[in-house]
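Review form for a predicted model. The reviewer records the input and the model, then writes brief findings.
Reviewer: anonymous (R2)
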Amino acid sequence: MFWRRGIGASVPLAALALSACVGGGMPPVAREGAAPPAGPIRHHVTRGEDAANLRGATGQIVGAAPLAGQPVVVPAGVTNAAAAGVVAGPPVASLPITDAQAVAARAAFARSCPGLMRRTDTSGLTRGTDWQGACAAAAAGGDARAFFATWFEAVQVGDGKAFATGYYEPEIRGSLDRAPGYEVPVYGRPSDLVDVDLGKFSDDLKGKTVRGRVQGKALVPYYDRTEIEGGAIARTAPVLAWAADPVEIFFLQIQGSGRLRLPDGNVLRIGYDTQNGRSYTGIGSLMRQRGLLAPGQASMQGIVAWLHAHPDEGRALMRENKSFVFFRELDGPPQGAMGYAVTGQVSAAADPKFVPLGTPVFLSADRADATGLWVAQDTGGAIKGANRFDTFWGAGPLAETVAGGMSARGSAFLLLPIGTLARLSAAASGAAGATPSP
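Model under review:
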């Protein structure tokens, strides 16, 4: 996902089609008998970009038998990984990690190391110093699979039952100037949008933030999608470009990052800057509840086709998602929530309360293309809770097809520095044996 997400916070495509972020999956659009991608969304793959296929992805579903996790009863209402509980996973050397995956994941891990050692780990699993040895070894090179087997232990968080969706970097039609056929503004951050760190006002609110605007002497919610599209921010937000299609820019907002193909053939790359603070509503789930999608239409392409075929109803439906994303121009590849470039077929989004950002994760899924080593470098508005992941597939038609149909279930194992589990177990034992003060 890309919002939060310079890409920084994405909402998965499967969430659009089915249950707003956490529910069932979407059928793959390239399966035999399925319709080809519909609508005017087009893609361009830069020469050499996303050329390496680490996972044999073809758009077809190839089944796999996921490894079983240990049976664990998770307490209700847990707020982070430490509270959910951790148990040992399989030996890292026994995991079916390919050489190509290991090489790519080590590079992504090494890129994440500065943030990994600096950031406060809200999952409760690690400390910055825990990663020093592995980070130094990652920079030294050598055999990549041996690197992971030497420096990491596999840990299961809670019951380990994983659900993975997918996201990608779309390309849509746009223009730097407003012109016939290019009438939809692509907004940058408004000057009157205010971020408030509530933790500065109360320790009880530490880690919580709100966004809004000042009206008189009060902080009020920021304008919602309907108000923004009605011109509420015309004087306060810069227009980075003009899109050709409101449906295309709506989906680009959901992805959080993408490319605008300009009339002269050049490309403007834009990424998530911030969001209006309103809650996200998945229109796919609304469409399903209202019976708007025929059998076989519950895919991103099916939703796009319906919105184009019903422009007035589609506009009203999209406005039920009050969330609105503001962009900034990028001078390089899309970035995840850590501020580092994300890599197709390597990077994934996760909930930092359950996965320290920068952590390698082995997904053992019922789909072969989702199975393997990923690195959690991003977050997502719909990616919440233990063992919930959104896999990034890069750019281009294949990325769209795989991400749009990704819905994989299985087991997840975090790869944490060796000794982490023993330290957590000792700390838990010490806490359990402590004598309460009178």
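Findings: The two ends are 49 Å apart (CA to CA).
Further findings: The first strand starts at residue 86 and ends at 88.
Recommendation: see findings above.
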